[in-house]
Specification:
The complex is a heterotrimer of chains A (360), B (268) and C (285). Chain A is mainly alpha-helical and 360 residues long. Chain A is built from 14 helices and 2 strands, in the order ααααββαααααααααα. Chain A has a single domain, classed as ABC transporter involved in vitamin B12 uptake, BtuC (Orthogonal Bundle). Chain A has a two-stranded antiparallel sheet. In chain A, β1 and β2 form a beta hairpin. Chain A starts with 19 loop residues before the first helix and ends with a helix. The radius of gyration of chain B is 21 Å and the shape is globular. Classes of the chains: A mainly alpha (360), B alpha/beta (268), C alpha/beta (285). Chains in contact: A-B, A-C.
Amino acid sequence: MRAPAESGVVRTAAWDPHDPRAAAQAAAGRRRQAWRIYGLFGTLLLAAIVGAPLVGSTPLDLRAVLDRTRPFADNLDAQIFFIARLPRVLAAGLVGATLAVAGVVMQALLRNPLATPFTLGVSSGSALGAMLALTFLPTWTGGALTSVPLASLAGALGAVAIVYALAQVRHRGFSTDVLLLAGVTLNAFFSALILLVQYLSDFTETMRTMRWLMGDLDVAGYRPLVIAMGLLLPAAVAFAWLPRSLNALALGAEQAGSRGVPVLGVQRLAFFAASLATGVAVSLAGPIGFVGIIVPHLVRLLVGADHRIVMPASALFGAAFLMACDALARLVLSPVELPVGVVTAVVGAPFFLWLLIRKT
Amino acid sequence: MLHGVSLDVARGGITGVLGPNGSGKTTLLRMLSGALRPTSGEVRLDGAPIESIPKRGLARRLAVVPQEIHPVFDYTVLDLALMGRYAHLGPFGFETALDLLAVRRALAATGTADLECRHFDTLSGGEKQRVVIASALAQFEEDTRDEGRLLVLDEPTAALDLHYQIEVAQLLRRLADDRGLTLLVTTHDLQFAWQVCDRVVLLQDGRVLADGPTEETLTPAHLHALYGVRVDRMTHPDGSVSLVPASLVGDRGRRAPTPVLAMHGARR
Amino acid sequence: MLLVFVGACRPREDARATAEAATAGPRVVSLVPAVTEMLFAVGAGPQVVGVSSYDKHPAEVATRPRVGALLDPDLERILSLKPDLVVTYGSQTALHEQLARANIATFTYRHGGIGDTLETFEAVATRVGRGDAGRAAAQVLRAQLTGIRMRVEGQPRPRTLLVFGREPGSIRHVWASGGVGFLHELLDVAGADNVFGDVARENIQATSELLLARAPEVIVELRAETRVAESPSPWLALPGVPAVRQGRVLALTGDQMVVPGPRLGQAAEALARALHPDAFAHQPK
């Protein structure tokens, strides 16, 4: 077995691989690059935060909005800005960021680029909960929360529990295949139940549930936002811990394990954090589609695959994207509004198809 | 799948594991690397039960190179190699200069340094294999020779053409000889095993058929027992050895020439 | 087209009518609650042999077989009732074809404003052989509406938001009447201006921004059924809305508010009494 002449030769690179200074420069360069990307997407979000509250069905006089000399009760511009628009824009930001990050995590966890935050049945569980509340508990309220968001959150958590239990039964570890199949099946099952509930309910309720399924960000106040943020906090902490582990997980569970990743723990954490976050987002604004798949893919196209960059960038871009879509929803047929879920789908579906064709 | 297999791997050198499909090679590797727990018996690394070693500590001493790797996302070579530093950095933050240095050395050692900025998906099979080996090498603590560092490779040449097979073979030898790593390799390639391994373990139906220095284990008798195929061991005038399976499909000249599938002058 | 079709069916209806002398006139299945009410109002109740799943009024409908509704008409049950005429929605095209194949006449209901209701009233009455009664009933309804309009004449017309759907316990998913349809016209009859009168749609989702911008002086919530009062009122989230500030958020209950049938007069009066209690102060109800 004689070696071909050119084989086994260490090819020379432009830099000396053993030079610590070059390595330090490269490490610093990578870090700088990451911060540049955060800065870029942060600027985009900032532009959305400044721009989105300025558009709407009513023209606002910004000077009147910020006029502190007039009492708030008499200042219609300020009321529209602070009671109607700002909470709505913030809700769009919160929901957009959450769904985008949950999408990134689901895609990495399931090792499937087509996964969305809704793949594992969280949204249909949530929808079923909301539907049951709209149909059977129309008057019940539980303190700060009303029946519909509470029931949809309960439905989401129920779906999470069922999928997790199923993934455990078949496999002592955490089989992503079983997870995926269980999620898809559960989605179909819940959708059937939703249809059944709709079929049995009154016609006006059917219309209301249809509208709920299209997503709506008009939260009319800060309290739902504060509650949602409180519920999202544990998920956010988990998300901050995940990126490097998700990178390794992209190579496969066993490979990640041999690199020192506590695979089972990471998978559990990713699953519960993404599911909980999705459940909270859906209970706040309904199942707004496409954000969780377009944003991660677009961000990956722009910045590469490293989750330490993709996750924060997706959060920032997801927030900006949904704010923009919601502004569009308010503007197109003003004063009549388009459901924001329709806008994200109309913007998102063609893009996604393009992405699919491009990939193959 | 394994029935009472005992195996001691000494520090240094390359140990090859051979056996027919389903003989338990991969199971053996997965157990030795701690990915699979034996139902009975135990695996020890430097005297300590492998499941008692913290995962991150284990990853710094034992690295695994699978047959093939399919990252779901489009990582660059450097990103992928840097994943080998997980155990040195933990889940937070970015790599330090030290990590980058280790990874670049590993890339240089596998001859892939100039691929650093390429995307992994665009590499050829041989380049991919070497990048994954670099990523595994990056797991080890730099400049330590006193501790046993174990590199486990599952059929490293299975998907490679002859040229890359030889490159990888030479790389593995260098890692064992120059860097003092202990290598554990499964393979189906008799010639590769003969050339590369210091010691060969033959597995059959989950049991050890033979275990010892390569010259003593890769004998025609053992190989016939293992595969049911006659293998000729031929020594060439220059001292090199060829292991050649005897033909089982008959004389080439007597086969019917009628074509079933034909293509003429196709272009694309 | 329709006339030709109707004409072709006429002899069959007549034949059936003579055969079943006990119930004079054609046997009718109604899938539209508003038309069911009209049929009963013109004395054609005995001829109604089947009603929709959503029919509640008058009480006699409880004794009639249910044959589905807009989305799920049960053709087999409809056919088994041997109707001469089936009242359907315009969108039920598949049902129309099936009934045409079975040689059964259809009366297509058109949803719209008060004018459409009055026309439907006369037309459906004519189709069941009670044209005079239909014209009289429509006249009564017209007179009722005119009476209410005159009674609130001269009263200040508050800018009013007419809500017919809302997520319980919050002011999300508020659905209100736009500037088209019988609810909008009822509001006009009852002496109020619809805050969404300029929006050429039957309904509109009123976001919090629209609610603040349109600044309704009165909010009227229509409900089909009685509900437990929400406490505190979710409307307090928008203290800037004049109706909320002045405590003029009213709730009207009863399905006459959502069925554009013979009880439109009652609905208009309930609305007018809620909006202008002073105008009705002198006379007991």
